[in-house]
Specification:
The complex is a heterodimer of chains A (about 220) and B (about 270).
Chain A lengths: L9 H34 L2 H32 L3 H37 L9 H20 L2 H30 L5 H33 L8
Helix pairs in contact in A: 1-2, 1-3, 1-4, 2-3, 3-6, 4-5, 4-6, 5-6
Chain B lengths: L1 H10 L6 E9 L8 E8 L4 E5 L6 H7 L11 E9 L2 E2 L7 H7 E4 L10 H11 L5 H14 L3 H4 L12 H14 L4 E5 L7 H14 L4 E5 L3 H7 L2 E6 L2 E7 H6 L4 H7 L5
Parallel strand pairs in B: 3-8, 3-9, 6-7, 7-8
Antiparallel strand pairs in B: 1-2, 1-4, 4-5, 9-10
Helix pairs in contact in B: 4-5, 4-7, 5-7, 7-8
The chains are: A mainly alpha (about 220), B alpha/beta (about 270).
Chain lengths: ~220, ~270
């Protein structure tokens, strides 16, 4: 990216840095919650699931805080051009992160239900999906941190792999549901978890689109 | 915003109200250039904003359009041409008084004459030979309405112009300018001495006036440029660095220097 000249008002630079730090912290929390939810599933740990669910209020609060900082920046500094794109897109990114956090909670709740019902869990079906979704979030946050639009553009390509894998897993898991198996309920839950992972990938793509907009003013949403 | 986007498309087919080509300007008979090689077209019935740091030449360039700089010894365009309404304004056949009738000007500080509100507006009309009272009254009212001032002054037309507030005085000056029916209005930081309410009224007026007049405004207020103008030109050290639609300049300018200036960065 092009080197940015500092603002004459140093407070403006500090406010922009603050919003960036907050978004990165929020992303880090959401990423951790996703890992904890999956670990809860794999390791059969209720405590991790409960923690993810309890921590969601914190994620919601982070989104509200970022909104408040954004409002203050818009009011005090009247940003234009790349500053305005950065501020608005950072707010959009926090919105996507909050929804990623919600999906981590969904995964934790479904896992908790399975653990409470004492169902057998065969989470190996989801390992690869999880790895791809987590990698997309990692890439999105690296791209945001460095404002690297090329890295951000590549997320869309990665997501196509995730989508293809999700379709495959959907068929496999659906096949387990069709029978009158005792494990039917477990596979329904796994199917929903797979769906959450696929949606997380879509949200990472949205974040990537926001980063491209920050860097190039190009709106690449809804381009297939 | 939508009407501005549509207007931009219309503009492409309309002939420009002002065409400046390769203009150099000097205050000292050509020893040093205050404007260098400026080429710019100002579309008709649109608002074009000139922005840039102090001393960049934007006011100098604005004052070229009605040859206001002629009043300064040694100052003048040393190269290039400026056409206003299809006439080269430096041509010997051009009558400067007539040019200034067509190209009115509103200054940074309101400058009403020490006369009544009505007489301020009628001043230029009388100079143009209009003496019939009913016609003068009609045109004073028409101009004050055009400057969004009529409702505030209609019952005190014979009071001194100095009894008006700063914002009202500035709108009176705009009424005085439009009374002689110019085609172009030049505004040199018209709101810099006004409070936010008076500024909003003048800005609102600028948008209304743009339906009838070509407006060029010099402003240091970036938000004002985004609010009132259709096109923006960025000047720096006597050069025109970037010119385009206001939407483009303030959302994604081509030059880093433009972006640094509009976003308040060290240049």
């Amino acid at each position: 990216m092009q080197e940015q000249t500092p603002h004459i008002l140093s407070e403006f630079d500090e406010a922009l840095q603050l919003i960036k730090t907050r978004v990165i912290n929020m992303a880090s929390d959401c990423r951790m919650h996703l890992s904890m939810a999956l670990e809860g599933l794999v390791e059969n740990r209720l405590d991790l699931c409960n923690e993810v669910i309890a921590e969601d209020d914190n994620v919601d609060q982070q989104e509200l805080d970022i909104d408040a900082i954004t409002m203050e920046i818009l009011t005090r500094f009247n940003p234009v051009a790349s500053d305005l794109r950065f501020v608005i897109s950072s707010m959009n990114i926090s919105r996507s992160l909050e929804r990623i956090g919600d999906h981590a909670v969904n995964i934790a709740k479904r896992t908790r239900k399975m653990i409470k019902n004492g169902a057998t869990r065969d989470s190996s079906h989801l390992n690869e999906l999880f790895d791809l979704a987590a990698e997309e979030i990692n890439e999105a946050m690296l791209a945001y941190s460095d404002l690297d639009s090329e890295r951000a553009r590549r997320i869309k390509e990665s997501d196509q792999k995730l989508d293809a894998l999700y379709k495959k897993k959907f068929k496999q898991l659906s096949a387990f549901i069709e029978g009158d198996s005792e494990e039917k309920n477990q596979y329904i839950q796994l199917l929903f978890i797979a769906r959450s992972l696929e949606r997380i990938g879509d949200l990472a793509v949205n974040i990537g689109e926001d980063i491209v907009f920050i860097q190039s003013a190009e709106d690449i949403r809804h381009q297939g | 915003m939508i009407h501005k986007v549509i207007s931009e498309e219309n503009v492409k087919t309309a002939p420009s109200a002002i065409v400046a080509q390769d203009v150099d300007f000097s205050y000292d008979g050509g020893k040093t250039l205050s404007l260098k090689n400026i080429s710019l077209e100002v579309p008709p019935k649109k608002v074009t904003a000139f922005i840039g740091p102090s001393g960049c030449g934007k006011s100098t360039f604005l004052r070229c359009f009605n040859r206001m700089n002629d009043m300064i010894d040694g100052a003048g365009v040393t190269r290039g041409s400026i056409h206003v309404l299809d006439e080269e304004i430096h041509h010997p056949s051009i009558n400067v008084i007539d040019l200034r009738k067509k190209v009115g000007m509103v200054f940074q500080k309101s400058n009403p004459f020490p006369r009544s509100i009505s007489d301020n507006v009628a001043y230029g009309l009388r100079l143009n030979g209009i003496t019939q009272k009913s016609e003068l009254q009609d045109r004073v009212e028409h101009s004050l309405r055009g400057a969004a001032l009529w409702d505030e002054v209609k019952d005190r037309l014979h009071e001194s112009a100095f009894s008006l507030s700063g914002g009202q005085q500035q709108r009176l000056c705009i009424a005085r300018t439009i009374a002689v029916e110019p085609r172009v209005i030049l505004m040199d930081e018209p709101c810099s001495a006004l409070d936010p309410v008076a500024t909003a009224k003048v800005e609102n007026l600028i948008s209304e006036l743009a339906k009838e007049y070509t407006i060029v405004i010099v402003t240091h207020n970036m938000q004002q440029a985004t609010r009132v103008s259709d096109f923006t030109a960025y000047f720096y050290l006597g050069e025109l660095l970037e010119h385009g639609s206001t939407k483009k300049i303030f959302s994604n300018p081509d030059l880093k220097q433009t972006e640094d200036y509009i976003s308040g960065r060290f240049g």
